[in-house]
Every structure is written in C-alpha cells, then in structure tokens.
Amino acid sequence: MYGVDIYRVREIIRVPAITRVPRAPEYVEGVINLRGGVIPVIDLRKRFGMEKGEESAERRIVVSELGNQTVGMVVDGVSEVLEVDEAEIDPPSEYVMTVDSQYITGIVKREKLIILLDLEKVLEVSRRDDKAVAEVGE
C-alpha cells in the first residue's frame, strides 16, 4: 500500500478516456481533458516497473499540482485519508525493494505497511518526459 501527502493532491477522479501520445515513455498513459485543461497521466505501476494491475472500477486518477504543472497518476484505488503523526513515520530501509528508495519519504507501520511516496521526485522524470512529449506534439 502506498500513501502520498494529501496537501499535494488536488483531486481524485474516475479514470476517463485517456488519449495515447506517440513516442511517450511506457509509463505515460497519455493525456486527459480535465475541465478544459489537458493534463498528462502516468501509471504508477509502470513508473516503478511493477506488473500491470487489473482493470477495475476501483481505479482512480490522483490529480496533483506541483509548482505550475498538473499531473494525473493512475492508481489501483484510493481507500482512505489517514492522519499520521511524524513519530509514526520510519525512514525508508533496505527491505523496501519494490520501489527505488529515492522516491520514498518513509514507511508507516499500521495494520499494513504504508510506503510514503515523494511525489516531487516521482514526477520529476515524468515532467521532463512530458516536455519531450509536448515537443513531439507540436
């Protein structure tokens, strides 16, 4: 299970039709029209080299605004918003092997482990790729 800082999340939406973009990196699903704005959408499973998830009605796009860039991230689902004390957050350790540790800010141990992602680092490469995609589209 993964978590992100709620203050980085603008909204959570159902997955609409996604328009593929030629020559985009594999993890870039394409772009969507969100109330008149076109935003890139990445698949976090693909971004981290994980197996493709099952198509389900639970899938969502987490829309995040970082600086002046709006990006959507396809996730398997969103279960809840949790309040976490700083004291509950452990630093990343070597046992987190599924995701490159540079993208992890910490781990919360509750009923399940929650890996906290640093959205700015996760999306840093994506923004560079989006710029390349935008240049191809012009």
Mean pLDDT: 83
CATH-assigned homologous superfamily: CheA-289, Domain 4
Cα(first) to Cα(last) distance is 38 Å
Which structural class should the secondary elements be placed in? alpha+beta
Task: Kindly provide the name of the CATH class.
Answer: Mainly Beta
* CATH architecture name: Beta Barrel
Which sheet architecture does the biggest sheet show?
A: 5 strands, mixed
Q: Could you tell me the strand content as a percent range?
A: 35-45%
Assign a percent range to the helix content.
Answer: 10-25%
Spans of at least 5 consecutive residues with low confidence: none
Shape: globular
Q: How many distinct helices?
A: 2
CATH topology: OB fold (Dihydrolipoamide Acetyltransferase, E2P)
Strand order of the largest sheet: 2-5-6-4-3
Number of strands: 9
Query: What value does the Rg take, in angstroms?
Result: 15 Å
Order of helices and strands: EEEEHEEEEEH
- Whole-number count of domains: 1
